[in-house]
């Protein structure tokens, strides 16, 4: 099949015919039952956890009978579309790897067995999590989804959280749903499930533990004590660039593979998942899938790996995206194929980020840095700068500011980091260097945009998230220089100047 007109809709009853063209699940999906409930099903989850589970069941015929199917849960209003698409496709989706040489490889993933939309039926979600068969509740709810204050690190009781804490409230947040499900398991004498965060946050398991325990403490201190004693929150690191799926992707999948898929996943070939092997006791039932058999790394301490990924890969996405958009680029690959910006990224990674890292077992950091430039330059992935520029007020505190603080504490230079912050401020002006409008997608945009336009250029730094950097000359001096350079010389010349400075030492 090479034409969209001959393509087959992806469903259980078309799977055998689709399997004549691309690999499909080799296991009996009818035998699958839920063992994992996942909150926040998007491309990122489906490109790693669901993919690894599918791969394991494909390689071990008995695995599908161990009850490790995934029930996805949507918590947000916008997740209704995901439910509709996955219901129509019996939970199936196409995973496409876009290779640097322009080739695509595809497979159909079958590990998702159900999808529940919490606003429609919260009771069904609660009972699925309370079911003894559910042994893991995993999360990809974004960096801002844990309600942790960026400076204090304390749990932030937002209006939505406050509403879930009201007596008799029907849970609407991840906190309310997970804690209520744990309360039911406690009352029924069922072992607690493991809460597995897969979000891009340093110490994501520790952060999740802090958030859910804080919510439980506000609701019922006795329950909070039970959670602290019985619920495990392993740390993890996930590495795979997974851009948003476009209509062009859907059309090309139909053309190349003969599959009509309403929500396929496209990603790079590279994938890495490092997990702390800390899962709760489930009695006679296994506490987790045997993911190590398909390449997942189980380690005692995830922190070195996650710091490496957050401060090199994720932070580099921030470092390139505002500068690239200001210069008129739209794609990550375009920026990384520009020598000035590639040199800036390497300077940031080598001179500022890497000195803040601990040794990473089995990793050559110099090779890893250069591999990132190659991965970012993969033209087939077509990752957009706009995606990486969204919700910056969640991302900068997570990826860039920890590097700034560690560098300042060590007496190091922070010119590249300060340039990234300055490029964010310049980006908030809403127009690139060619006069094209820039869309500002940030939940705090109403506050950020006026501050970025303030007459005092340090006003932006006086927000809580910067934690006093406005009064630190070792940061403000390079920040003010970069801001002035961006406004007078432009993004490319500014990036080149920073890279040259780094090369001179």
TrEMBL record:
InterPro entries attached to this UniProt entry: 6-PGluconate_DH-like_C_sf, 6PGD_dom2, Mannitol_DH, Mannitol_DH/Oxidoreductase, Mannitol_DH_C, Mannitol_DH_CS, Mannitol_DH_N, NAD(P)-bd_dom_sf
Family membership noted in the UniProt record: Belongs to the mannitol dehydrogenase family.
Enzyme class: oxidoreductase
Mannitol dehydrogenase N-terminal domain sequence ranges: 35-279
Gene Ontology BP terms: mannitol metabolic process
Catalytic reaction list: D-mannitol 1-phosphate + NAD(+) = beta-D-fructose 6-phosphate + NADH + H(+)
The keyword NAD is assigned to this record: yes
GO molecular function, one term: mannitol-1-phosphate 5-dehydrogenase activity
Keyword tRNA-binding found: no
Name recorded for this polypeptide: Mannitol-1-phosphate 5-dehydrogenase
Species, as recorded: Nakamurella flavida
């Amino acid at each position: 099949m090479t034409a969209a007109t001959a393509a087959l809709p992806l469903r259980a009853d078309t799977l055998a015919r689709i399997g004549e063209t691309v690999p499909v699940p080799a296991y009996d999906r009818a035998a699958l039952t839920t063992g994992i409930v996942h909150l926040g099903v998007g491309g990122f989850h489906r490109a790693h956890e669901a993919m690894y589970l599918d791969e394991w069941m494909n390689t071990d015929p008995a695995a599908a009978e161990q009850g490790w199917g995934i029930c996805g849960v949507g918590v947000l209003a916008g997740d209704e579309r995901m439910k509709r698409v996955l219901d129509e496709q019996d939970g199936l989706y196409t995973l496409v790897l876009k290779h640097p040489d322009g080739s695509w490889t595809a497979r159909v993933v079958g590990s998702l067995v159900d999808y529940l939309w919490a606003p429609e039926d919260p009771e069904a979600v609660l009972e699925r999590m309370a079911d003894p068969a559910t042994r893991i509740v995993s999360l990809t709810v974004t960096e801002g989804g844990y309600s942790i204050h960026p400076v204090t690190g304390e749990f932030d009781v937002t209006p939505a959280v406050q509403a879930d804490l009201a007596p008799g409230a029907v849970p609407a947040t991840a906190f309310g749903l997970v804690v209520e499900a744990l309360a039911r398991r406690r009352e029924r004498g069922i072992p607690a499930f493991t809460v597995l965060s897969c979000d891009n946050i340093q110490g994501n398991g520790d952060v999740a533990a802090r958030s859910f325990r804080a919510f439980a403490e506000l609701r019922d201190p006795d329950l909070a004590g039970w959670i602290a004693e019985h619920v495990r929150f392993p740390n993890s690191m996930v590495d795979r660039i997974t851009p948003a799926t476009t209509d062009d992707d859907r059309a090309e999948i139909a053309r190349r593979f003969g599959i009509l898929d309403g929500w396929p996943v496209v990603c790079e070939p590279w994938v890495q998942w490092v997990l702390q092997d800390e899962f709760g006791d489930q009695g006679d039932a296994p506490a987790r899938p045997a993911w190590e058999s398909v390449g997942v790394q189980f380690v005692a301490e995830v922190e070195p790996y996650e710091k490496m990924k957050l401060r090199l890969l994720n932070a580099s996405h921030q470092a390139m995206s505002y500068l690239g958009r200001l210069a008129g680029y739209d794609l990550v690959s375009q920026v990384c194929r520009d020598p000035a910006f590639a040199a800036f990224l390497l300077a940031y990674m080598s001179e500022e980020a890497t000195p803040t890292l601990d040794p990473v077992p089995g990793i050559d950091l110099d090779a890893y840095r250069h591999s990132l430039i190659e991965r970012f330059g993969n033209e087939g992935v077509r990752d957009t700068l706009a995606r990486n520029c969204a919700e910056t007020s969640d991302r900068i505190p997570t990826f860039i500011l920890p590097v700034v603080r560690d560098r300042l504490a060590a007496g190091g230079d922070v010119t590249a980091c300060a340039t990234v912050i300055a490029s964010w401020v310049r980006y908030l002006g809403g127009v690139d260097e060619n006069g094209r409008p820039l869309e500002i997608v940030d939940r705090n945009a109403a506050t950020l945009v006026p501050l970025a336009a303030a007459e005092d250029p340090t006003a932006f730094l006086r927000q809580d998230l910067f934690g006093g950097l406005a009064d630190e000359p070792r940061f403000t001096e390079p920040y003010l220089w970069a801001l002035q350079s961006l406004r007078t010389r432009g993004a490319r010349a500014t990036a080149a100047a920073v890279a040259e400075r780094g090369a001179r030492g």
